[in-house]
Amino acid sequence: MADAQNLAIIGGDGIGPEVVAEGLKVLEAVAGAHRFNTTAYDLGATRWQRTGEVLPDSVLAELAQADAIVLGAVGAAPGATDVPSGLLERGLLLKLRFAFDHYVNLRPSRLFPGVPTPLAESVTAGKEVDFVVVREGTEGLYCGNGGVVRQGTPAEIATEVSVNTAYGVERVVRDAFERATRRRNKITLVHKHNVLVNAGGLWRRIFESVATEYPGVTTDYLHVDAATIFLATDPARFDVVVTDNLFGDIITDLAAAVTGGIGLAASGNINPDRTFPSMFEPVHGSAPDIAGQGIADPTATILSMSLLLDHLGLAEEAARVEKAVIADIAGRTAGQRRSTTEIGDAIAAAV
Amino acid sequence: MADAQNLAIIGGDGIGPEVVAEGLKVLEAVAGAHRFNTTAYDLGATRWQRTGEVLPDSVLAELAQADAIVLGAVGAAPGATDVPSGLLERGLLLKLRFAFDHYVNLRPSRLFPGVPTPLAESVTAGKEVDFVVVREGTEGLYCGNGGVVRQGTPAEIATEVSVNTAYGVERVVRDAFERATRRRNKITLVHKHNVLVNAGGLWRRIFESVATEYPGVTTDYLHVDAATIFLATDPARFDVVVTDNLFGDIITDLAAAVTGGIGLAASGNINPDRTFPSMFEPVHGSAPDIAGQGIADPTATILSMSLLLDHLGLAEEAARVEKAVIADIAGRTAGQRRSTTEIGDAIAAAV
Ligand SMILES: CC(C)[C@H](C(=O)O)[C@@H](O)C(=O)O
Ligand SMILES: CC(C)[C@H](C(=O)O)[C@@H](O)C(=O)O
């Protein structure tokens, strides 16, 4: 049995702490003899409003020592005009992804039995919708390059620079091919190389070159615009999708929507080289409108714990969490309202 | 009655010439006493393969004299490895959009009665899905700024630069607000200002400032990732959507998918100041796999002719084309197969 593992917990804002509590409950229940030590970190909009601090260096250094990080959600209420746009996203969430080199942003999409989807039966009936998006997490338009000149004047110019390196693209493409070999051996590159000829050319060449090392994996390419069409009309065609940071952001929200909504969408910000802790979080945000009412669905966070367990080498426990979630979902009936803790309790009891 | 108007016709590749022929047939039928002179231009992959020319300056100069341009689709068969990626997109299609200052890329999305959508009935039944995306057409990541260094080496870097100007953003936002006043007085800005803080800040500030001039228009903001969710789960919420070039590209394909597919999606590349001819084209591509079989659906092109008529001041004729299309669609039955010309003939007879 492994030693105890240290988890850094960032509940964050809004429903973040509520759903994280249920995630940890399930983690505890499935852990058995395996020990997790948790340390809570107070970060997010509320902390900033109180102290003016987003992510002190000392906290970043402490987080770096954890075996993994659990994040709820960060973000102020939409009306909170005191929080500048991007402050928490760039200063906290993306800072962690970049500082800890989370180059694989893993987002599984599975249409579980019994889950209502906005798609017509003709699109989904009898088909298995089960794919995973491997979104690059450390480059592209997310790197924060760009600027503004002559702000607020009629001559203002604002730029954003997408930076893509062979180093960054190759490692994530390779990770995606590896995952494809552990799944149904199919991989789709999503980009827009007919317009973004520089970045697209790089992605395409590297994709094609790595593909030669995986002759058993079938490859496919879709422009990002066409990819959204297929996500709505034939999501069963996908197995592993690999794409850049921004395209990954966009298509994973759509992927979540067609497989039951972001209330179910889990994600891992993974550093496959284990040079820094990986971070697990639901795809959804802090949902300030329903915070404090105990009605947030913790399922996405609980599924993120399954990804965490898997990453920490506890594959059997990861599978048990996923199985318990699937069973819980199958038992849900339309219109039924269960509280956040009721769902957490039920899944914790079943793992 | 206006003088005859001169239309430049670029059929292009694949199914392009086939669908354009039907579009012109309907235009001729609805024109009545109004005269259109058409001049065909041979441009696209086939021309390039034959002559090595994409868009000679002399042709560009001639096109500039037209009253409007009708474009089918350009693009080689996927297997045609001799056509470099982006050559026709950047060198022809985008070159025309930029050279003729098509800053409004207009893409209406309407779920016509009887059209099959991939969305569940619960999403669409009893609701009117009828919105228009105003996509910026001359800036952003489409401007072709960026480059590659150390190509083909492990140290390769590829960049793409999104350029956004107050000048460019304000004119398209203003156009979108004007359209909202002629529709249901609702407008949604789609961007990603929490990550793309420079460009997003510019878009947001200009949007909010123009909004003060339109107190009767309700404004809304969505991050692009969230926008894809709503397009799949509640498309009826949209009226006018205004967004940048790349986001517009992505969400209009999804919008087309949920309202019946790109076989029905029309578009106008519009220069509202009329300093250069506007260009009308279906959203779909050259579909080389079905070219030459006479089975391509010309509906998107015919609807684009409605946009063209409207732009040229023939609003009544534009409405007649749209009405004839709606009636034709309502009469279609599942599994029915009509040829390209049958559909064109039927609509031409009905206008
Ligand atoms: C909150 C935001 C910065 C973030 C992103 O864009 O990556 C979110 O949308 C996500 O997908 O995790
Ligand atoms: C072909 C391509 C350059 C074009 C675009 O990206 O604008 C197309 O996708 C469109 O939407 O008209």
UniProtKB/TrEMBL annotation, chains A, B:
What the entry lists under InterPro entries is as follows: ICDH/IPMDH, IsoCit/isopropylmalate_DH_CS, IsoPropMal-DH-like_dom
Q: Which UniProt keywords apply?
A: Manganese, Metal-binding, NAD, Oxidoreductase
Identify the residues that the record assigns to the Isopropylmalate dehydrogenase-like domain, covering every copy: 6-347
The record's listing under Gene3D superfamilies reads: Isopropylmalate Dehydrogenase (3.40.718.10)
Any Pfam family hit: Iso_dh
- Asked if the Swiss-Prot or TrEMBL record annotates the protein with the keyword Metal-binding, the reply is yes
A GO molecular-function annotation: 3-isopropylmalate dehydrogenase activity
Q: Which cofactor does it need?
A: Mg(2+); Mn(2+)
Q: Which domain of life is it from?
A: Bacteria
Report the EC code(s) recorded for this entry: 1.1.1.85
Record carries keyword Oxidoreductase = yes
- What PANTHER family does the entry give? D-MALATE DEHYDROGENASE [DECARBOXYLATING]
Q: What is the protein name for this chain?
A: 3-isopropylmalate dehydrogenase
> Which species does the entry assign this protein to?
Microlunatus panaciterrae
